[in-house]
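Team,

Forwarding the record for the chain on the shared tracking sheet. I've put the sequence and predicted structure together so nobody has to dig through attachments.
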Amino acid sequence: MLKLIACADGHEQYVDGERHALLVFASANSLESALSSTPKRLITCGWQHAEVRGAKKLAVEVSSIGDDVLRNAAKAALQDGYAIVVYATPIGELNS
């Protein structure tokens, strides 16, 4: 799981140039592999200039994740390789 900040660029739901916090669930062989492949993946999903703010290997069973959105994202990543949770409120320069 990666915590990032990225700028919308060609995303159908978010205004170009707005920065948002993202959680990316990536199904990868290693944390290093997830870190190296995620920026390219984000570009194809309408996100540019990704800044990784934290990363860790998920150390719990997906079914034990209490939050529905996060649990569903983790399940989707297991099936599809990646899942992105976008925090809808843009990040301004003062609170980044």
